[in-house]
Amino acid sequence: QVQLVQSGGGLVQAGGSLRLSCAASGRTFSSYAMAWFRQAPGKEREFVAGVSGSGVSTYYADSVKGRFTISRDNAKNTMFLQMNSLKPEDTAVYYCAAGKDWDYWGKGTLVTVSS
């Protein structure tokens, strides 16, 4: 069983930056691919970024490519999402997920970008 605890998020002006963290329990953290998803009001949850278990491979939605950076520190069982040049359309609840079929989810953290 893996538990994911999120931190970070909050209110920021457009053009600003935020960093999200996702701390995982369990000794097999490095064996799991991990990802960030988000859900904006009235919209479906969407993939934002993903990272392989080793951290070598990363994947991004086109909407965040060049602005967001996903990373992980397997020694600390933690994944990060550095969000720069934030836009109002990035406003959403952000979730971290882990596992082959995204079996494990964090509870979500709200990111609000004001114009």
Question: Would you mind describing this structure in some detail?
Answer:
A hairpin with a 6-residue loop joins β4 (34-39) and β5 (46-51). This protein has 115 residues and is an all-beta fold. The strands form two sheets. Strands 2, 4, 5, 6, 9, 10 and 11 form a seven-stranded mixed β-sheet that branches. The chain has a four-stranded antiparallel β-sheet with strand order 1-3-8-7, with no helix packed on it. The protein has no helices and eleven strands. It has strands at 4-7, 10-13, 18-24, 34-39, 46-51, 58-60, 68-73, 78-83, 92-98, 104-105, 109-114. The mean pLDDT is 95.
Provide a short characterization of the protein structure:
By secondary structure, this protein is an all-beta fold.
User: How much helical structure, as a percent, in the residues?
Assistant: under 10%
Distance between the termini: 40 Å
Approximately what portion of the residues adopt beta-strand conformation? Answer: over 45%
User: What integer value in Å does the Rg equal?
Assistant: 13 Å
Mean pLDDT equals: 95
- List SSEs in N-to-C order: EEEEEEEEEEE
Q: Which runs of at least 5 residues are low in confidence (pLDDT < 50)? A: none
User: Can you count the helices?
Assistant: 0
Label the structural class: mainly beta
Topology (SSEs and partners):
Elements: E1 4-7, E2 10-13, E3 18-24, E4 34-39, E5 46-51, E6 58-60, E7 68-73, E8 78-83, E9 92-98, E10 104-105, E11 109-114
Parallel strand pairs: 2-11
Antiparallel strand pairs: 1-3, 3-8, 4-5, 4-9, 5-6, 7-8, 9-10, 9-11
